[in-house]
C-alpha cells in the first residue's frame, strides 16, 4: 500500500510544516494530503482521528525533539554556559533562524486552543521550567531563575512572531542573544 512507502517521520514533518505555516484551522485535509504526498484515505489510515490525530502526532514529534535537543541539554551535567549556548543554537536551527513559526503558536490559536490548550500549556511550562533550572545552575536565585525561565519563552515566542511579521529574522537572533546576556552574569 502507498501509505507504507513514506517514512512516518517524514509524514509528520510535512504535516508540521503545514500547521506551522497556516495554522490548525487553515490546514485542510487536501492541503495536508498534498504536503505529505499521500491520498486522503492514506492519511486517514495513518491517522484514524483525522486532523486532531495528525496534530497530536505533530505535537508528539515536537515534544520528542525538544526533549532530546533542548530539555536534556538544559538538564545535562556539562558547564551551564555550554548548555545555554548549545540550546540557543538548537533553537535557532529549530526555527530556521527565525523564519519558521512555532508549532505551539499554531496549536494555541483558533479552534486549536480549545482542543490542545492543556497540552500546549504543559509544553510551554516545560520550557519555562527547563530554562529556570539552567538559570539556577548559572547562580541565579530561585525567584530570578523563574523570571528568566518565563522571559526566555516570551522572548523566543514573541520574537518569532515579530520576525516573521516584519520579515526580519534578525529580530529572532537578537532575542536569542538577549537571552544569553540575561542568563550569563
From TrEMBL:
Keywords: DNA-binding, Transcription, Transcription regulation. The keyword Transcription applies. It comes from the Bacteria. InterPro entries: Homeodomain-like_sf (IPR009057), HTH_TetR (IPR001647), Tet_transcr_reg_TetR-rel_C_sf (IPR036271). Residues 16-57 form the HTH tetR-type domain. PANTHER family: TRANSCRIPTIONAL REGULATORY PROTEIN (PTHR47506:SF7). This is TetR/AcrR family transcriptional regulator.
Amino acid at each position: 500500500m502507498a501509505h507504507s512507502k513514506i517514512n512516518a517521520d517524514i509524514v509528520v514533518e510535512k504535516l508540521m510544516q503545514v500547521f506551522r505555516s497556516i495554522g490548525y484551522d487553515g490546514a485542510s485535509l487536501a492541503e495536508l494530503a498534498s504536503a505529505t504526498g499521500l491520498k486522503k484515505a492514506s492519511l486517514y489510515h495513518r491517522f484514524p482521528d483525522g486532523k486532531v490525530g495528525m496534530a497530536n502526532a505533530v505535537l508528539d514529534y515536537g515534544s520528542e525533539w525538544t526533549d532530546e535537543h533542548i530539555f536534556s541539554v538544559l538538564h545535562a551535567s556539562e558547564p551551564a554556559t555550554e548548555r545555554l549556548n548549545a540550546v540557543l543554537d538548537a533553537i535557532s536551527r529549530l526555527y530556521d533562524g527565525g523564519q519558521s513559526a512555532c508549532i505551539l503558536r499554531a496549536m494555541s490559536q483558533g479552534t486549536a486552543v480549545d482542543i490542545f490548550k492543556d497540552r500546549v500549556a504543559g509544553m510551554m511550562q516545560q520550557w519555562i521550567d527547563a530554562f529556570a533550572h539552567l538559570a539556577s545552575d548559572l547562580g541565579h536565585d530561585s525567584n530570578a531563575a523563574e523570571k528568566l525561565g518565563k522571559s526566555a519563552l516570551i522572548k523566543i515566542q514573541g520574537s518569532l512572531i515579530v520576525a516573521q511579521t516584519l520579515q526580519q529574522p534578525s529580530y529572532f537572533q537578537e532575542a536569542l542573544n538577549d537571552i544569553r546576556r540575561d542568563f550569563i552574569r
